[in-house]
Amino acid sequence: MRKHCSASRRFVFWQAPGVDAPLSTRFFTPLLDLLGTCTKQRHCPELSDSHWLRLGIQRCLQQQTSGRGFLQTLAVIAAECRPDNSHFFESLKSQRRLSLCAEVNARLCARARKVLPDALAAFPSLASYDVHAGDGHFHAHATHDPVGSKGVRYAVGHLYSRNLRT
After folding, report:
1. How far apart are CA 39 and CA 45, in angstroms?
2. Helices and strands (DSSP H and E) totals, the chain
């Protein structure tokens, strides 16, 4: 059985936030606060939902071009917090975790609308519009990606968007 991260380890994933709390703790606090109210969460001793969500965010923020590269880097900087390769990749296929991700995202967006100032309030002509910025890109296919019906492996596409109001 895998060890779970603890507050005494190098990567602190949860503790009561305060002025002296590490940046990672303060960054993840809104997510962890809202996770407790989500209906799609469940107890998973091998890879908890909170750990899985934090890993997903860290994966997006890291420079590695592959999931395996991300896990290898994690093994160097926080080995005690790294899930097994197969378990991590299998968890990415979970419909429940996808639903959890959507639920916690919706709750974070609702909270952001309540607590963050409207960055576009100074422009009354934009008051009736949703304003988003976006970016999309493709990565080269992974060597383990399946070959499609035309005999080729397709690149993975990603889309990122941001609500410019909050």
Report:
1. 18
2. 5, 2
Q: Are residues 65 and 139 in contact, defined by beta-carbon separation less than 8 angstroms?
A: yes
Terminal CA-CA length for the chain = 41
b/e map 32-53, b = 16+ CB within 10 Å: bebbeebebbeebeebbbbbbb
- For residue 95, CA distances in Å to 51, 101, 102 come to 17, 10, 11
Whether this model's pTM surpasses 0.70: no
Enter the tokens of residue 34: 């809202």
CB 48 within 8 A of CB 32: no
- Confidence check: pLDDT of 10 > 60: no
- CA 14/CA 16 separation, integer angstroms: 7
**Residues 6 or more apart whose Cβ sits within 8 Å of residue 18:** none
The DSSP output letter for 7 is T
Give tens-digit pLDDT for 70-107: 888 888 777 677 787 788 888 888 999 999 999 999 99
Residue 137: CB atoms within 10 A of its CB come to 10
Give CA separation, 117 vs 10, 41, 76, 126, 133, in Å.
34, 30, 39, 15, 17
Structure tokens at 80: 């005690």
